[in-house]
Every structure is written in structure tokens, then in C-alpha cells.
Amino acid sequence: MTISSARMIAATRKFFGRFAVDTSGATATLMAAGLFAMIGTVGIATDAARGYLVKARLSQALDSAALAGAKVFYLPTRDPDIQMYFDANFPQGYMDAAITGPNITTKKDTNGDDILTLTASAQVPTTLMTLFGINTIKVSGGSEVTRQTQLLDVVLAIDMSGSMSLPAVGGGTRIEAARAAATEMVDILFGNEATKSLLKIGLVPWNSKVNVQLNGTTFDDTLTNTISVPAFVNPLTSAAQTEVYTANNSPVPLLSAPTAGWRGCVYQRHIYNGATNDPTDDADTALGAVSFPGGDWVAWEHIGPEGEPVPGNAECLQAVLGGSSLECVQCLDHGITPLTSTKQEIQDALNELISPDGGTNISHGLAWASRVLTPGAPFDEADPNPPGLRQQAIVLLTDGENCGWWGDGYKGAYGLCASARSFMNDRLLELATNIKASGVIIYTIQFANSGTPLQNLMKSISTGPDAPYYHHAPDAATLQTVFQEISNHLSELRLSK
After folding, report:
1. ω into residue 76 within 30 of 0, thus cis?
2. Quick one: fold of 152-218+241-495?
3. Which residues have C-beta within 8 Å of that of residue 48, sequence separation ≥ 6?
4. Are 416 and 404 in contact (CB under 8 A)?
5. Where are the domains of the chain?
6. Can you give the pTM of this predicted structure?
7. Fewest CB within 10 A of the end CB: N or C in the chain?
8. Distance between CA atoms of 245 and 261, rounded to whole angstroms?
9. Any idea what DSSP says for residue 306?
10. What is the pLDDT at residue 204?
11. Distance CA 164, CA 492 (A)
12. The predicted structure's pLDDT at residue 9
């Protein structure tokens, strides 16, 4: 708050100077002077109090506006939102103050975090101080917010089932809408930085199964690695084993050497024993290596020709159960993009999501998203000892309910589509519970599907049943907004001044 002492002194000298040349009525003059001084003192106190009230209100309005602006830092609505929040907290006409601002500036600190600074000033009309020729006093304020996206690991688990090729409300296909919205999320989190050492994003495309090869690489069966490990019992053969295998283009350990032409998919760690939900020998809901009386799940079973369509038609070469040949889903061409701190790398991977196909096995996508996010094998891009607090999150998008297929991650063991749904949902819920218990945040997006059963399932597996954790996006425009909201929720805010 500014009250010019020079102006105050000049006004006082002018007033008392008039008495220096006239000594008549000295007593009355002195009384008047004393009264005037008293009025001046009261005036200063009164107008100073008004100024402090305006300054406090101004600071509150700037703080609210700065926090609101930081939440939408990269959106075109940022500046209008700042003005709206400022006006809401400093109503027009308050104390008859004339406002200049808020003025908006942005910069980055030494950590690469975005800093939003707001300043404003107000001219407050005086009351009694007008007797001294001081008609206004000026108060100023400022607020600074740092928008942090530090020590953040995120994996996008995007549904690539056949229905994602259908038109989306609002234009384009569903996968095109998902691709655009996810790309904007990457833009928001990285900002204008090409790399960000404290931010890592990965991508797991999935349908009925997951291609665990590194995206953009080529499998060569002559380059398979054999790795010696402590003796274990193969849960599929019940035989003792001291070796596992890795392909030249995937870190995922396999129970047997992948055959020529392997497309990159693996089954879930599950043994069909005729009991729909018997988990006795299963590790599909576990996060790491698991041992059971019947065997040790230290590696995965690769999907060979038996789980891929016969060349020239859509049937499995050999159904796992019953000897029948039914419709089969092909392993996706899109592999896994491990956690990366390079913006272009994750954007390129998203841009390649163009060929949706097959059924829906949500648990397979969620499980591999968790493995990409978790420090240690098979994917080791996550720092096991982060230098500070770290937030880990999975963003899971689907447009449909679980649907079993021959050749899927469960080998089609429980029949086709709806007949397998209850089994698959139960396994998904258990898996999600284990992931959340490890401290990982799960965001779910129900896209282009308004079904209540899917809504209930997505609400149950997400960290919370409502926003910002669960979202329903019926159309492309809403999906874009949802990804923006999730991005902003992932960004921690702190009031730094």
C-alpha cells in the first residue's frame, strides 16, 4: 500500500502556512490546528484500513486465479479462466477500487517446471484524507504458482480391439479420437520440452492379448537368448527347468524358445483346470514371479501358431480345448513402448495405433501396463530408487466389455465372448486390487459405450468411482476433455510465493 509522505507533508505545510502570516485569534487558530491534526490522524487510520482490506482481497483473488490458471496451463482457456476467477474473488466496485490487471507472465525454473505469475494493483479512493489533497491510495499484490510434473511415471493402456475402428461421435474413428486425445495428454505433461528427465510415459496397446515385443522391432528366432536361472518347476509341463528364454526384441522371459514366425504375444499365466475361477495354479492376477505347488510362474508361455489365425482365414490352427477350430484373433502388430522421457518417442508410438482388431481382454492390458510401470524385470525403465517422491499411474481406455476368444490370453478356455465375461471380470477386479495396493493410481475411461455393466466394472477397478479417476466419454470431444483433466490431475501444484 502506498501513501506518499511527500504529498502528506506538502499538504500539511500548505494548511499551516496560512497561519504564519496572521496572529489574530491565536487560540482559536491553535484549536483549529489541533482539530485538523486529529482529523488527519483519524483519516490516515481510516483510509489505511480500507487500503489493507483491498490489498487482502486483491491477494486472495490473485491466489485463486493463479491456481486456476496453473491447472489449465497449456489450454487456450487459461487466461480467460484466470480473469474469471479473479473477478469472482474481487467483485467489481469493491471499495470503489479501480483495478489494473491481473497481468500474466510465465517462465520456467531451473528444474524445467512452469511458473505462472500474476500481478495486479488497485487505486482506492480516500475519505478523510481528501482534506490533505490525497484522493487515492495504491495497493499492489502478486501470486506465483509452480506447476510441477516431477517424478511421474505413466503408462497408457489403449484398447485396440476391433470395435475401436468404428466411427466415433464427433467425427473420425474411435482409435483416431483416442490417439488424438492421448497425444494431447503427452503434450500437456511434457509442455514445450523435448525430454523431461523426471517424467516417463509408456504405452501398452492391447486387445485379446498383448504383443510383448518392443514396438518397432523385428523378431529373429536365430537370436533367441538362453538364460540360466535357479531350478524351478515349469507349471505347464511339471518338469524341472533351469533355463528361460528371451527373444532378441523383448525382455520378457519365456518358458520355451519362441518358434519361427512368433508375432510377439504371450498367454496369461493361467492354467485351465475345469474350475471357472479356481486360482490354485494361476499367476494372472499377481504382479511378479509366483510359486505354486504345481509349478513356478517365473516366465510366460509364448503364443505359437496354435493361437494365431490360419493363413488365409480367421480360424485358429488348433483350438486349445475341444479340438475345434473357431474364429481366432491375430496378435497385434503394435508392441510395447517402455517408459521413456522422450516426448517424440511416445508420440510416434501413439501415431502408429491405426489397425484395431480382435476381442477385448482388459486384464491382459492392465497387467502388462503394471509390469511396464513396475521397477525391475521384465521392463526395468522405472527407477527402483527414485531421487524423490514419485507418482505412478495407469490410464486405461476401453470401448467394450471383456469378451473371450480362441487364441486370446486365456486360450479361449472359457468360451466365446459373454460366456467368459464373469470369469474375466473377476480376474480383472483381483488384479486391479493388487495394483492399487502397490500404490499405483488407476484412471479408467469408458469410451463410446454407455453400458451400465461396463460402467460398474470400470468404477470398481479405478482408484475412485468418480472423476478424476473414472470417466465416461461418449464422444470424441468429451474424450479430449477427459485426457486433459487426467493430465492436470497428474500435475502437482504448489503455491511458491
Report:
1. no
2. Rossmann fold (3.40.50)
3. 1, 3, 137
4. yes
5. 5-148, 152-218+241-495
6. 0.75
7. C
8. 16
9. G
10. 99
11. 32
12. 52
